[in-house]
Design brief:
The chain is an all-alpha fold. It contains 19 helices and no strands.
Length: about 475
């Protein structure tokens, strides 16, 4: 078998790997909170303005389209994660179903996704934190609150700071960080519900006219509903971080499906209601360019105290997204290191049962990106990596159903052909709706990754040294 087609045995994914294992300390409430914490964040608190600027009030359709594709991807993830409960997420599934070469591309894309999501959310958190402090009469110098892309900016220190804080929390242990995450998620969801309650009485249906000023859009078109859906896609993913916690879940055959599907249902409903309330309260043009659109809407309504409350809630609760994705990123690295595709020293587990080396390494990289890059650039490029991973999961779902239909499945995605097809086609269309520059950067990233794979990883892979373990 050619090295790029080497596949891991699914049965071996259930066996203990070399070295210490991660501690199984999580149950479905932790996973549900992890998913909601990862999904509800910069996407709805910040990118709703970016999406509205691209599609106008029809951003509602963009939310629905992105939610449909993500819902199908979530069903695929739920089936595969309960079959292969190991750290690594889409990378691990691709290794077992599609082969090592595709798994490398997926894993390399996931590294891009998770790193840039953390950086993007940190930049979004910084915008709310600076706005909150300004509202309290504390003005931070521009040079230390934005990157060099803004005149007078040098580095976004608040973004770097929050990444350092969340990294310290993760190093304390998985259960401890998951418990705090659940508390912060409640605060965040309560803030969004409060926003809806305040904004709905000011609802003006005229703000939805014209409904689709920039058209529906199409692949390679940079405006319209599809372009907004491609960027708003960022607002929905996060449930895939749940699958990276499979090894640390007490009952993965039950709890993973509850966490993945439950978090998607909760967040989709919440997003549509918040988006409708925001557009109904103020014309899209008034908040499209704001780094804190929901707080801005409330201030323009004369609700200064509520705006401060929203900003404070974002400052307190947005780190849940950082926590979820830093958590997931370290587990992707861990899975690839265990397989020998990355240096095995990255797979070291601390006495607290967490991959400390790779967690700190990841934090340094994402903090550097957050310090100098813009939010829209980070989110767009992160989407490219996610779309590649989600499409691969859709392919894995269909291929495994056809190749091994009798294998036990704790959760079975309904209408697997349709679910897989919507996931694959939707991800491809969204990818080509991203900016051409983003597509090019993604291509460069994966070309660089393939060079690393061919020169080092393919030779050092665990299956290269132990071919008897191949599936």
């Amino acid at each position: 078998m050619a090295f790029w087609n080497r596949r891991k045995s699914i049965d071996q994914l259930h066996q203990a790997s070399d070295g210490p294992r991660l501690k199984a300390t999580l149950s479905w409430p932790h996973l549900l909170a992890l998913g909601v914490g990862a999904i509800v964040g910069t996407g709805i608190l910040t990118l709703i303005g970016v999406g509205a600027g691209l599609a106008g009030p029809a951003v509602m359709i963009s939310f629905a389209l992105a939610g449909l594709v993500c819902a199908c991807a979530a069903l695929a993830y739920a089936e595969l994660s309960t079959m292969m409960p190991q750290a690594g997420s889409a990378y691990a599934y691709s290794y077992a179903v599609l082969g090592e070469g595709i798994a490398w591309i997926v894993g390399w894309s996931l590294i891009l996704e998770y790193s840039l999501v953390v950086s993007a959310v940190a930049v979004g958190w910084s915008g709310y934190a600076v706005g909150f402090l300004t509202g309290m009469g504390i003005d931070l110098p521009t040079a230390l609150t934005v990157g060099p892309h803004v005149a007078g900016g040098i580095v976004n220190l608040p973004a770097v700071f929050i990444i350092a804080v969340v990294t310290g929390l993760l190093l304390l242990g998985t259960r401890e960080s998951a418990t705090l995450n659940a508390i912060l998620v409640v605060i965040k969801v309560a803030a969004l519900i409060g926003f809806v309650a305040i904004a709905l009485p000011a609802f003006d249906q005229d703000n939805f006219t014209p409904f689709m000023p920039y058209g529906f859009g199409a692949p390679f078109v940079q405006t319209g509903v599809m372009a907004a859906a491609a960027i708003i896609f960022f607002a929905f993913y996060g449930f895939d971080a749940i699958s990276t916690a499979a090894e640390e879940t007490k009952k993965p055959e039950r709890d993973l499906a509850i966490g993945i599907i439950g978090s998607m249902l909760i967040c989709t409903a919440l997003y549509l209601v918040v988006a409708a309330a925001a557009i109904g309260a103020r014309p899209v043009a008034s908040f499209a360019a704001s780094p804190e659109p929901l707080a801005l809407i409330l201030r323009e309504m004369g609700q200064g105290t509520a705006a401060q409350w929203i900003a404070a809630s974002a400052v307190i609760a947005l780190p849940t997204v950082l926590l979820a994705f830093l958590f997931g990123q370290s587990r992707i690295f861990l899975g690839m290191a265990r397989d020998g595709l990355l240096p095995t020293r990255l797979a070291r587990i601390s006495t607290r049962g967490v991959p400390a080396v790779v967690t700190v390494f990841t934090a340094v990289v994402v903090a550097a990106l957050a310090g100098v890059m813009r939010l829209d650039e980070l989110a767009s490029l992160a989407n490219a990596g996610t779309l590649a991973a989600f499409a691969a999961v859709g392919v894995c779902l269909i291929v495994l159903r056809l190749r091994d239909p009798e294998r036990e499945r704790k959760f079975r995605a309904p209408l697997f052909w349709l679910v897989g097809a919507i996931t694959i086609v939707g991800c491809v269309v969204f990818f080509f709706s991203l900016q051409a520059r983003t597509q090019l950067y993604f291509l460069y990233w994966n070309i660089g990754g393939l060079v690393i794979y061919l020169l080092w990883s393919a030779k050092n892979a665990r299956l290269a040294k132990h071919p008897e373990q191949a599936g």
